[in-house]
Protein backbone atom coordinates (compact mmCIF):
# COMPACT_ATOMS: atom_id res chain seq x y z
CA UNK A 1 0.00 0.00 0.00
CA UNK A 2 1.30 3.46 -0.83
CA UNK A 3 2.39 5.36 2.30
CA UNK A 4 0.84 8.72 3.03
CA UNK A 5 3.23 11.71 2.74
CA UNK A 6 3.75 13.00 6.26
CA UNK A 7 3.41 16.71 7.05
CA UNK A 8 4.29 17.01 10.75
CA UNK A 9 4.77 13.66 12.52
CA UNK A 10 7.44 11.08 11.79
CA UNK A 11 6.60 7.48 10.96
CA UNK A 12 8.27 6.53 14.25
CA UNK A 13 5.94 8.81 16.23
CA UNK A 14 2.89 7.30 14.54
CA UNK A 15 4.13 3.78 15.38
CA UNK A 16 4.78 4.88 18.96
CA UNK A 17 1.23 6.21 19.30
CA UNK A 18 -0.13 2.96 17.91
CA UNK A 19 2.00 0.89 20.31
CA UNK A 20 1.55 2.94 23.52
CA UNK A 21 -1.82 4.63 23.02
CA UNK A 22 -0.35 8.06 23.69
CA UNK A 23 2.31 10.25 22.18
CA UNK A 24 4.37 13.01 23.78
CA UNK A 25 5.35 15.89 21.54
CA UNK A 26 7.66 18.73 22.48
CA UNK A 27 7.54 22.24 21.08
CA UNK A 28 4.19 21.95 19.28
CA UNK A 29 3.05 25.33 20.58
CA UNK A 30 5.53 28.20 20.69
CA UNK A 31 6.34 29.66 24.14
CA UNK A 32 4.30 32.73 23.12
CA UNK A 33 1.27 30.60 22.23
CA UNK A 34 1.53 28.70 25.53
CA UNK A 35 1.86 31.86 27.61
CA UNK A 36 -1.02 33.43 25.66
CA UNK A 37 -3.33 30.54 26.61
CA UNK A 38 -2.14 30.57 30.23
CA UNK A 39 -2.71 34.32 30.55
CA UNK A 40 -6.15 34.05 28.96
CA UNK A 41 -7.12 31.20 31.33
CA UNK A 42 -6.03 33.30 34.33
CA UNK A 43 -7.97 36.28 33.00
CA UNK A 44 -11.12 34.15 32.72
CA UNK A 45 -10.64 33.06 36.34
CA UNK A 46 -10.26 36.67 37.48
CA UNK A 47 -13.34 37.81 35.56
CA UNK A 48 -15.97 35.17 36.27
CA UNK A 49 -18.74 36.08 38.66
CA UNK A 50 -18.93 33.81 41.70
CA UNK A 51 -22.07 35.52 43.03
CA UNK A 52 -24.41 33.99 40.44
CA UNK A 53 -22.52 30.68 40.34
CA UNK A 54 -24.42 27.53 41.49
CA UNK A 55 -21.26 26.27 43.29
CA UNK A 56 -21.08 23.23 41.04
CA UNK A 57 -18.05 21.14 41.99
CA UNK A 58 -16.23 18.86 39.62
CA UNK A 59 -16.62 15.42 41.17
CA UNK A 60 -15.58 12.22 39.43
CA UNK A 61 -16.43 9.35 41.79
CA UNK A 62 -18.30 6.34 40.34
CA UNK A 63 -21.39 7.16 42.44
CA UNK A 64 -21.02 10.89 42.60
CA UNK A 65 -20.24 12.38 39.23
CA UNK A 66 -21.13 15.97 38.47
CA UNK A 67 -24.45 16.11 36.59
CA UNK A 68 -26.42 19.27 37.35
CA UNK A 69 -27.82 21.64 34.73
CA UNK A 70 -24.82 23.96 34.96
CA UNK A 71 -22.64 21.01 33.88
CA UNK A 72 -25.06 19.43 31.38
CA UNK A 73 -25.58 22.67 29.44
CA UNK A 74 -21.92 23.73 29.43
CA UNK A 75 -21.02 22.26 26.01
CA UNK A 76 -21.51 25.59 24.26
CA UNK A 77 -20.51 27.85 27.16
CA UNK A 78 -17.50 28.86 29.20
CA UNK A 79 -18.25 27.68 32.73
CA UNK A 80 -16.30 27.19 35.93
CA UNK A 81 -16.33 23.97 37.96
CA UNK A 82 -15.04 24.19 41.51
CA UNK A 83 -12.66 21.94 43.43
CA UNK A 84 -14.41 19.81 46.03
CA UNK A 85 -12.09 21.12 48.76
CA UNK A 86 -12.70 24.76 47.83
CA UNK A 87 -16.30 24.83 49.09
CA UNK A 88 -17.19 24.39 52.77
CA UNK A 89 -20.22 22.63 54.27
CA UNK A 90 -22.24 25.86 54.00
CA UNK A 91 -21.48 26.30 50.31
CA UNK A 92 -18.95 29.12 50.94
CA UNK A 93 -15.61 29.29 49.15
CA UNK A 94 -12.62 28.55 51.36
CA UNK A 95 -10.24 30.50 49.09
CA UNK A 96 -10.24 33.19 46.43
CA UNK A 97 -12.44 32.20 43.46
CA UNK A 98 -9.48 32.34 41.05
CA UNK A 99 -7.83 29.57 43.11
CA UNK A 100 -11.01 27.56 43.70
CA UNK A 101 -11.67 26.29 40.17
CA UNK A 102 -10.88 22.72 39.13
CA UNK A 103 -11.65 23.35 35.48
CA UNK A 104 -13.15 25.70 32.91
CA UNK A 105 -15.29 24.09 30.18
CA UNK A 106 -16.54 23.01 27.75
CA UNK A 107 -16.88 25.41 24.79
CA UNK A 108 -13.59 27.32 25.00
CA UNK A 109 -12.48 26.06 21.58
CA UNK A 110 -15.57 27.56 19.96
CA UNK A 111 -16.16 30.72 21.96
CA UNK A 112 -12.83 32.11 23.07
CA UNK A 113 -10.60 33.50 20.28
CA UNK A 114 -7.31 32.44 21.93
CA UNK A 115 -8.41 28.81 22.40
CA UNK A 116 -10.24 28.75 19.06
CA UNK A 117 -7.06 29.78 17.24
CA UNK A 118 -5.07 26.86 18.67
CA UNK A 119 -7.87 24.32 18.15
CA UNK A 120 -9.91 25.12 15.05
CA UNK A 121 -7.68 27.56 13.18
CA UNK A 122 -4.37 25.80 13.49
CA UNK A 123 -2.72 24.51 10.31
CA UNK A 124 -0.05 22.66 12.33
CA UNK A 125 -2.78 20.77 14.16
CA UNK A 126 -4.50 19.86 10.90
CA UNK A 127 -1.20 18.48 9.56
CA UNK A 128 -0.78 16.39 12.69
CA UNK A 129 -4.36 15.11 12.47
CA UNK A 130 -3.92 14.16 8.81
CA UNK A 131 -0.66 12.35 9.65
CA UNK A 132 -2.12 10.41 12.56
CA UNK A 133 -5.13 9.48 10.41
CA UNK A 134 -7.03 8.34 13.51
CA UNK A 135 -10.35 9.66 12.15
CA UNK A 136 -11.90 9.96 8.71
CA UNK A 137 -13.84 13.17 9.44
CA UNK A 138 -12.96 14.49 12.91
CA UNK A 139 -15.02 17.03 14.82
CA UNK A 140 -14.10 18.91 17.98
CA UNK A 141 -16.32 17.90 20.86
CA UNK A 142 -15.30 19.70 24.01
CA UNK A 143 -12.47 21.65 25.57
CA UNK A 144 -11.29 22.42 29.09
CA UNK A 145 -8.67 24.26 31.06
CA UNK A 146 -7.71 22.13 34.05
CA UNK A 147 -6.01 24.26 36.69
CA UNK A 148 -4.80 21.66 39.25
CA UNK A 149 -4.52 24.25 42.00
CA UNK A 150 -1.81 24.05 44.64
CA UNK A 151 -2.56 21.60 47.46
CA UNK A 152 -6.23 21.03 46.52
CA UNK A 153 -5.95 20.21 42.78
CA UNK A 154 -7.82 16.87 42.90
CA UNK A 155 -6.66 13.44 41.80
CA UNK A 156 -8.04 12.22 38.46
CA UNK A 157 -8.40 8.47 38.85
CA UNK A 158 -7.44 5.89 36.23
CA UNK A 159 -9.87 6.11 33.32
CA UNK A 160 -10.13 6.07 29.55
CA UNK A 161 -11.74 8.95 27.70
CA UNK A 162 -14.07 6.97 25.41
CA UNK A 163 -16.04 5.98 28.54
CA UNK A 164 -16.94 9.65 29.00
CA UNK A 165 -17.05 10.72 25.35
CA UNK A 166 -18.67 7.66 23.87
CA UNK A 167 -19.27 6.99 20.18
CA UNK A 168 -20.16 3.77 18.43
CA UNK A 169 -17.53 2.58 17.66
CA UNK A 170 -15.35 4.38 20.25
CA UNK A 171 -13.39 7.18 18.57
CA UNK A 172 -12.35 9.75 21.20
CA UNK A 173 -8.92 11.28 20.79
CA UNK A 174 -7.52 13.77 23.32
CA UNK A 175 -5.05 16.62 22.86
CA UNK A 176 -3.59 17.75 26.19
CA UNK A 177 -1.33 20.81 26.33
CA UNK A 178 0.71 21.58 29.45
CA UNK A 179 0.55 25.33 29.98
CA UNK A 180 2.96 25.09 32.94
CA UNK A 181 5.72 22.70 34.02
CA UNK A 182 4.38 19.28 34.95
CA UNK A 183 6.16 17.37 37.69
CA UNK A 184 5.46 14.27 39.81
CA UNK A 185 4.58 16.65 42.67
CA UNK A 186 2.08 18.89 40.87
CA UNK A 187 0.06 16.13 39.20
CA UNK A 188 1.68 15.35 35.83
CA UNK A 189 -0.34 12.90 33.70
CA UNK A 190 0.72 9.27 33.66
CA UNK A 191 -0.24 6.47 31.28
CA UNK A 192 -0.38 2.68 31.19
CA UNK A 193 1.37 2.08 27.86
CA UNK A 194 -0.44 -0.29 25.51
CA UNK A 195 -3.61 -0.43 27.65
CA UNK A 196 -5.68 0.87 24.71
CA UNK A 197 -5.23 -2.58 23.17
CA UNK A 198 -6.25 -4.53 26.28
CA UNK A 199 -8.94 -2.31 27.83
CA UNK A 200 -12.23 -2.38 25.94
CA UNK A 201 -14.79 0.33 26.67
CA UNK A 202 -17.10 -1.59 29.02
CA UNK A 203 -19.32 1.24 30.27
CA UNK A 204 -20.31 4.72 29.19
CA UNK A 205 -21.10 7.91 31.03
CA UNK A 206 -24.70 8.95 30.25
CA UNK A 207 -27.50 11.38 31.10
CA UNK A 208 -29.90 9.42 33.30
CA UNK A 209 -33.61 9.48 32.37
CA UNK A 210 -34.43 10.62 35.93
CA UNK A 211 -31.91 13.50 35.66
CA UNK A 212 -28.23 13.76 36.47
CA UNK A 213 -25.53 11.47 35.15
CA UNK A 214 -24.36 7.91 35.72
CA UNK A 215 -22.79 4.93 33.99
CA UNK A 216 -24.40 2.41 31.65
CA UNK A 217 -22.80 -1.02 31.24
CA UNK A 218 -21.98 -1.95 27.66
CA UNK A 219 -21.27 -5.57 28.52
CA UNK A 220 -22.37 -7.65 31.50
CA UNK A 221 -20.17 -7.13 34.60
CA UNK A 222 -19.24 -10.85 34.49
CA UNK A 223 -17.65 -10.35 31.05
CA UNK A 224 -15.52 -7.34 32.03
CA UNK A 225 -11.87 -8.37 31.63
CA UNK A 226 -9.57 -7.81 34.63
CA UNK A 227 -7.86 -4.40 34.72
CA UNK A 228 -4.50 -4.70 32.96
CA UNK A 229 -1.44 -4.85 35.17
CA UNK A 230 1.58 -2.72 34.47
CA UNK A 231 3.58 0.29 35.42
CA UNK A 232 2.25 3.78 34.77
CA UNK A 233 4.68 6.09 32.99
CA UNK A 234 4.77 9.76 33.92
CA UNK A 235 4.77 12.33 31.10
CA UNK A 236 6.40 15.71 31.49
CA UNK A 237 6.10 16.90 27.88
CA UNK A 238 4.06 19.83 26.58
CA UNK A 239 1.57 18.08 24.25
CA UNK A 240 0.23 14.57 24.75
CA UNK A 241 -2.06 12.93 22.20
CA UNK A 242 -4.31 10.47 23.99
CA UNK A 243 -6.07 7.43 22.45
CA UNK A 244 -9.63 7.20 23.80
CA UNK A 245 -9.06 3.71 25.22
CA UNK A 246 -5.68 4.18 26.93
CA UNK A 247 -5.73 4.23 30.75
CA UNK A 248 -4.33 7.38 32.31
CA UNK A 249 -4.56 9.35 35.53
CA UNK A 250 -3.09 12.25 37.49
CA UNK A 251 -2.37 12.55 41.21
CA UNK A 252 -3.48 15.29 43.57
CA UNK A 253 -1.32 18.40 43.36
CA UNK A 254 0.80 18.24 46.54
CA UNK A 255 3.06 21.12 45.55
CA UNK A 256 3.11 24.89 45.79
CA UNK A 257 2.89 25.19 41.99
CA UNK A 258 -0.26 25.13 39.88
CA UNK A 259 -0.42 22.85 36.83
CA UNK A 260 -2.60 24.55 34.22
CA UNK A 261 -3.37 22.46 31.12
CA UNK A 262 -5.58 23.00 28.06
CA UNK A 263 -7.23 19.91 26.61
CA UNK A 264 -9.75 19.19 23.91
CA UNK A 265 -11.17 16.07 22.33
CA UNK A 266 -12.10 14.99 18.84
CA UNK A 267 -14.40 12.20 17.73
CA UNK A 268 -15.21 10.81 14.30
CA UNK A 269 -18.52 11.71 12.69
CA UNK A 270 -21.21 9.70 10.84
CA UNK A 271 -21.06 7.34 9.05
CA UNK A 272 -17.74 6.47 10.74
CA UNK A 273 -18.93 6.88 14.36
CA UNK A 274 -22.27 7.71 15.95
CA UNK A 275 -22.62 10.13 18.87
CA UNK A 276 -26.06 9.74 20.40
CA UNK A 277 -28.45 11.61 22.68
CA UNK A 278 -27.47 9.61 25.78
CA UNK A 279 -24.15 11.44 25.97
CA UNK A 280 -23.91 14.06 28.72
CA UNK A 281 -22.69 16.74 26.31
CA UNK A 282 -25.08 17.58 23.50
CA UNK A 283 -24.39 19.80 20.50
CA UNK A 284 -26.87 22.63 20.02
CA UNK A 285 -28.45 23.79 16.76
CA UNK A 286 -26.66 27.10 17.16
CA UNK A 287 -23.30 25.45 17.83
CA UNK A 288 -22.89 22.01 16.22
CA UNK A 289 -19.53 20.23 16.61
CA UNK A 290 -17.00 21.89 14.28
CA UNK A 291 -15.20 19.86 11.66
CA UNK A 292 -11.44 19.93 12.16
CA UNK A 293 -10.20 19.41 8.64
CA UNK A 294 -12.62 21.55 6.68
CA UNK A 295 -12.86 24.46 9.13
CA UNK A 296 -12.23 27.84 7.49
CA UNK A 297 -9.18 29.52 9.04
O1 LIG B 1 -5.35 17.01 33.49
C1 LIG B 1 -5.56 16.06 34.24
O2 LIG B 1 -5.05 15.99 35.35
C2 LIG B 1 -6.41 14.89 33.81
C3 LIG B 1 -6.94 15.05 32.44
C4 LIG B 1 -7.59 13.81 31.94
O3 LIG B 1 -7.28 12.72 32.32
C5 LIG B 1 -8.63 13.91 30.93
O4 LIG B 1 -9.05 15.02 30.60
O5 LIG B 1 -9.06 12.85 30.45
From TrEMBL:
Cofactor(s) annotated in UniProt: Fe cation
Pfam families: PhyH (PF05721)
PANTHER family: PHYTANOYL-COA DIOXYGENASE DOMAIN CONTAINING 1, PHYTANOYL-COA DIOXYGENASE DOMAIN-CONTAINING PROTEIN 1
InterPro entries noted in UniProt: Phytyl_CoA_dOase-like
TM helices/strands, residue ranges: none
An annotated Gene Ontology molecular function: metal ion binding
Record's protein name: Phytanoyl-CoA dioxygenase
Keyword Metal-binding: yes
N-terminal signal peptide: none
Amino acid sequence: MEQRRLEYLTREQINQFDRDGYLCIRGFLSPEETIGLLDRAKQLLEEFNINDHPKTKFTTGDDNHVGDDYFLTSGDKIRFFLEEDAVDAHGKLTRDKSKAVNKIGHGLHELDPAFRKVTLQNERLKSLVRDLHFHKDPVALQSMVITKQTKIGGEVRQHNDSTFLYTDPPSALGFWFALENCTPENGALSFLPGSHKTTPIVKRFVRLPEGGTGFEDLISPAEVPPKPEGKYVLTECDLVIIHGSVLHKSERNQSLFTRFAYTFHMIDSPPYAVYDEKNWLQPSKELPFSRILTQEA
